[in-house]
Structure formats: structure tokens, C-alpha cells
Write a structure and sequence with these properties.
Helix content: 25-40%
Oligomer: single chain
CATH architecture: 2-Layer Sandwich
Largest sheet: 5 strands, antiparallel
Structural class: alpha+beta
Keywords: Lyase, Molybdenum cofactor biosynthesis
Radius of gyration: 17 Å
Pfam family, one: MoaC
Organism: Stutzerimonas kunmingensis
Number of domains: 1
CATH superfamily: Molybdopterin cofactor biosynthesis C (MoaC) domain
InterPro entries: MoaC, MoaC_bact/euk, MoaC_sf, MoCo_biosynth_MoaA/MoaC, Mopterin_CF_biosynth-C_dom
CATH class: Alpha Beta
Order of helices and strands: EHHHEEHEE
Pathway: Cofactor biosynthesis; molybdopterin biosynthesis
Number of helices: 4
Distance between the termini: 30 Å
Number of strands: 5
């Protein structure tokens, strides 16, 4: 049984020593709602701080690699692939999708969720001077593949 509690009921990292190494993947998303003119500025490359999507993509990738330093009890993982994609979704929203892969003994859901979250926070940070009312929403796991529990996908 996997649990974050040890035999004395204290929080501890799950022991994955005896778990098989399998291919694992997770996909997560987040959204950043903003004023239409803020999104337009980003898309036109007119932001004085530079390419907002490029910086947010790098921030998400870096965050996925350091998830174990941010989230207590997460395992340090050697991710083999991290993809962070950003695109306009309508006239007032940025959709962020993060996908993480590895061959290992534990899943990468937290890494994908962290990548999407930090990319969204980076957009907020870069654009807050022009749009303090931005809203980060919809951070969620979309899909998980591999491991003992197999495939899971958000219901359609």
C-alpha cells in the first residue's frame, strides 16, 4: 500500500524501491484570463519585458525539473521530456499545457501540474504592471499514463 504516513503515522516519502520501472507520462493545464488588450500585446510581441510566452515556457520547464524542491514528499525525478505549450484561447485567455515523461518508479503528475502553474504565474508576473486583474484558473491534470494504475484521462 502506498501512503505518505510511516508506521508511526508521521508524514514520509513513499518508498518506491520495489516498484517496477515503467514509462510514465502526465499532461496538465492551466489558464490565465486577462484583458483582451493584454493578450493582444503579448501576441504582437509588444511587451517591454520581451517574449512572454517564451519566458513562461522556460519557467514551466525549470519548475518541472525542481518539483521535488517545491512540493514536500515528492521524489526527485530524471525527467526525459518536458513540453510546455502556450496559446491564445479566445480573446482574453492563455491556455497552458504541460507534459512530462520519464521511465521510472513513480508518476509525473506533480511535475506537469507544477510546470503549468509556474508558467501561469510567470505570465502574471510579467504582465501585472498592465493588468493586475488577471486570473489564474483551471489548474488540473488532464491525463496520466503508465505505472500500476495505468491510463487515466479527465472525463469528456
Amino acid at each position: 500500500m502506498l501512503t505518505h504516513l510511516d508506521s508511526q503515522g508521521r508524514a514520509s516519502m513513499v518508498d518506491v524501491t520495489d516498484k517496477a520501472v515503467t514509462a510514465r507520462e502526465a499532461v496538465a493545464e492551466a489558464r490565465v484570463r486577462m484583458l483582451p488588450q493584454t493578450l493582444q500585446m503579448i501576441q504582437q510581441g509588444g511587451h517591454p519585458k520581451g517574449d512572454v510566452f517564451a519566458v513562461a515556457r522556460i519557467a514551466g520547464i525549470q519548475a518541472a525539473k525542481k518539483t521535488y524542491e517545491l512540493i514536500p514528499l515528492c521524489h526527485p525525478l530524471l525527467l526525459t521530456s518536458i513540453k510546455v505549450e502556450l496559446q491564445a484561447d479566445g480573446e482574453d485567455c492563455v491556455l497552458i499545457r504541460a507534459a512530462c515523461k520519464l521511465a521510472g518508479q513513480t508518476g509525473v503528475e506533480m511535475e506537469a501540474l507544477t510546470a503549468a502553474s509556474v508558467a501561469a504565474l510567470t505570465i502574471y508576473d510579467m504582465c501585472k504592471a498592465v493588468d493586475r486583474g488577471m486570473v489564474i484558473e483551471g489548474v488540473r491534470l488532464l491525463e496520466k499514463l503508465g505505472g500500476k494504475s495505468g491510463h487515466w484521462q479527465v472525463p469528456a
